[in-house]
C-alpha cells in the first residue's frame, strides 16, 4: 500500500508521468480515497501536514553560518542553498518531491488538500461545523504551501512584473492526469489570497490542536503574505484582525530556565504550529548564529537565554524555535505584533507602531528593566521595528522573504558573503540566486516546467 502511494505521489509531484506508467498504482490509490468528513479530517491530521516545510530559503539567509566540517554533513541541495550556487546537482528535494518515503513534501500536502476539497463536493454533511472546518483547513493548507514555495522558487513580488513573471504550478485538483504549468506570480499570489479568503469564515476561532488551522492562523498568514508583497495597509489590517481575536503573549520571566528548552512546544505564543524538518542541515543544531546579531540583544533581554546557547568555543547555537531543534515555520502572536508595528510605521503612525513593539518587548525583558522605546519620527520607528523583527523572529522561516523584499529598498538591501573551503560566495541584492532553481530531475521529467532565469 505504502509503495503504491509513493509511486502515485511521486508522479503527481514530478509533473510529467503519463497515465500508462502509473495506472496500476492509481487503481490501488483510489481504493483508499476518503469519502466521509471524518476521513477527510484524519487525512489532514496526518503529521506531514505540519512538518517538512520548505527550508532552503532559511538555509540561505544571513542569521547564521556554519563551519567547513559541519558543511560536509549537509545534503547536496542544502550545500547549494547555503552557498547560493549550483555546485552540485539539484534533485527532487523535499520541496518538490516525495524524497523521504513518498508522502512528505510541499506538493504532497497540496495533493492531500485537493483530495479533501474534491471529496467534499459530493460528501454528506454540507453546512455542519465539522464539514466547514475541514473545508477551511484544506484551503488553508493549500494556501500555506503555495505561499511557502513562492518564497523560494518564484521571484519576489514586483507589481510592475507580477503579471508576466513566472510563479508556481497551481495544482487545484487532485487529478494527477492534469498537466502542470507555471502560473504567473500575480496568479499565484491571487490564488493564495482567494484560498485564505474562503477559509476564514469556515475556520474556528480556537482549534482543537495548535497543529490545526484556525481563523487567527488564516488572518496571520494573510498578514505575512501582504507584508511580503509590501502592501503595508493590508498587512496591518490582517494582523489587526488576528490580534483582535488572540493576543496572549508568553512572558519570558515565567519560563523555567532549568530545562534545556525553556519555551515549550505549543506555547501560548503559537497560533499555528509547523516545522521545517532540517536534519543535519544549517538550520538545525549545526547552525552557528551570527555573532553580530547575537550582540544586538541587551543583557537584560531574556531572548538571549531562551533562544541561544554559548558553546565552549564561544560560538553561539540556536536552541529554541518553538519546535526545539527542528526549525519552526508556523505562525505566532509575536509576529503579528511586529507585522502591525512595521505596517503602522510605514504608514506614518509612529506612536501606534511603538505601542505594539513595546507591548511585545515588555514580555521579553527581565521584569523592571525594560524602558519603552521612543522615536522622533515614523522613519526612526521603522528602523527600530525592523531591528527587533530580526531579533524576535530569528530562525522562524521568514528572514529569506524579508531579505527579498528589502532588496527593493536600497537603504535596507545588503550583500551576503560566505566562505567555505577557502572559496568565497556572494549574494548581491536583486541577484537571480534569490529565486532557487527548480530541481534538475523535475525539469528533465517535465519539459513543460520552465526553469527559473539564470540557472
Q: What is the number of independent domains?
A: 2
Q: Which CATH architecture of the largest domain?
A: Alpha Horseshoe
Q: What is the CATH C level class of the largest domain, in words?
A: Mainly Alpha
The neighbouring-strand order within the major sheet is 1-6
The major beta sheet can be summarized as: 2 strands, antiparallel
Commentary on this structure:
It is a single chain. The chain has 455 residues and is mainly α. The chain folds into 2 domains: 1-53 and 95-182, no CATH class; 55-93 and 204-430, Serine Threonine Protein Phosphatase 5, Tetratricopeptide repeat, CATH 1.25.40. The chain has 18 helices and 12 strands. Residues 1-31 and 97-104 have low confidence and may be disordered.
Keywords:
two-stranded antiparallel sheet, globular, 455 residues, mainly alpha, disordered N terminus, two-stranded antiparallel ribbon, 18 helices, Serine Threonine Protein Phosphatase 5, Tetratricopeptide repeat, 43% helix
Outline:
With 455 residues, the chain is mostly helical. The protein contains 18 helices and twelve strands.
How are the SSEs ordered, and which strands pair?
Blueprint: H1 2-14, H2 19-30, H3 37-44, H4 56-59, E1 64-65, H5 68-71, H6 76-83, H7 106-120, H8 129-153, E2 166-169, E3 182-184, H9 185-199, H10 215-228, H11 232-245, E4 270-272, E5 275-276, E6 288-289, H12 291-294, H13 303-307, E7 308-310, E8 316-318, E9 327-328, E10 331-332, H14 333-346, H15 350-362, H16 378-392, H17 399-406, E11 416-420, E12 423-427, H18 440-445
Helix pairs in contact: 1-2, 3-7, 3-8, 7-8, 8-9, 9-10, 10-11, 10-14, 11-14, 14-15, 14-16, 15-16
Amino acid at each position: 500500500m505504502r509503495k503504491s502511494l509513493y509511486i502515485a505521489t511521486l508522479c503527481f509531484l514530478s509533473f510529467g508521468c503519463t497515465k500508462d506508467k502509473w495506472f496500476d498504482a492509481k487503481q490501488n490509490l483510489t481504493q483508499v480515497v476518503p469519502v466521509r468528513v471524518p476521513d477527510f479530517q484524519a487525512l489532514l491530521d496526518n503529521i506531514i501536514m505540519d512538518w517538512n516545510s520548505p527550508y532552503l530559503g532559511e538555509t540561505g539567509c544571513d542569521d547564521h553560518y556554519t563551519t567547513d566540517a559541519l558543511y560536509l554533513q549537509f545534503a547536496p541541495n542544502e550545500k547549494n542553498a547555503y552557498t547560493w550556487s549550483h555546485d552540485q546537482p539539484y534533485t527532487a528535494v523535499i520541496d518538490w518531491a516525495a524524497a523521504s518515503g513518498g508522502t512528505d513534501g510541499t506538493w504532497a500536502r497540496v495533493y492531500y488538500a485537493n483530495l479533501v476539497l474534491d471529496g467534499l463536493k459530493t460528501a454528506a454533511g454540507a453546512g455542519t461545523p465539522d464539514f466547514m472546518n475541514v473545508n477551511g483547513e484544506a484551503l488553508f493548507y493549500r494556501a500555506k504551501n503555495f505561499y511557502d514555495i513562492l518564497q523560494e522558487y518564484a521571484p519576489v513580488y514586483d507589481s510592475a512584473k507580477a503579471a508576466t513573471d513566472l510563479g508556481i504550478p497551481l495544482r487545484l485538483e487532485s487529478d494527477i492526469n492534469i498537466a502542470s504549468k507555471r502560473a504567473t506570480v500575480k496568479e499565484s499570489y491571487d490564488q493564495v489570497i482567494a484560498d485564505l479568503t474562503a477559509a476564514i469564515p469556515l475556520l474556528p476561532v480556537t482549534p482543537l490542536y495548535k497543529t490545526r488551522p484556525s481563523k487567527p492562523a488564516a488572518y496571520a498568514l494573510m498578514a505575512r503574505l501582504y507584508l511580503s508583497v509590501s502592501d503595508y495597509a493590508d498587512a496591518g489590517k490582517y494582523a489587526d484582525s488576528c490580534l483582535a481575536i488572540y493576543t496572549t503573549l508568553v512572558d519570558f520571566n515565567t519560563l523555567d530556565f532549568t530545562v534545556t528548552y525553556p519555551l515549550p512546544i505549543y506555547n501560548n505564543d503559537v497560533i499555528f504550529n509547523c516545522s521545517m524538518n532540517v536534519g543535519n542541515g544549517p538550520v538545525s543544531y549545526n547552525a552557528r548564529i551570527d555573532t553580530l546579531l547575537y550582540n544586538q540583544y541587551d543583557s537584560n533581554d531574556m531572548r538571549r537565554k531562551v533562544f541561544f546557547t554559548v558553546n565552549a568555543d564561544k560560538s553561539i547555537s540556536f536552541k529554541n524555535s518553538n519546535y526545539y531543534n527542528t526549525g519552526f515555520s508556523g505562525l505566532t502572536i509575536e509576529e503579528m505584533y511586529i507585522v502591525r508595528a512595521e505596517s503602522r510605521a510605514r504608514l506614518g503612525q509612529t506612536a501606534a507602531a511603538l505601542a505594539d513593539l513595546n507591548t511585545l518587548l515588555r514580555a521579553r525583558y527581565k521584569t523592571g528593566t525594560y524602558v519603552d522605546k521612543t522615536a522622533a519620527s515614523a522613519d526612526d520607528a521603522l528602523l527600530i521595528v525592523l531591528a527587533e523583527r530580526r531579533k524576535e523572529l530569528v530562525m522562524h522561516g521568514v528572514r529569506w522573504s524579508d531579505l527579498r523584499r528589502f532588496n527593493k529598498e536600497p537603504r535596507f538591501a545588503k550583500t551576503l558573503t560566505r566562505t567555505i573551503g577557502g572559496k568565497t560566495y556572494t549574494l548581491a541584492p536583486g541577484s537571480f540566486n534569490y529565486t532557487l532553481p527548480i530541481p534538475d530531475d523535475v525539469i528533465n521529467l517535465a519539459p513543460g516546467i520552465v526553469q527559473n532565469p539564470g540557472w
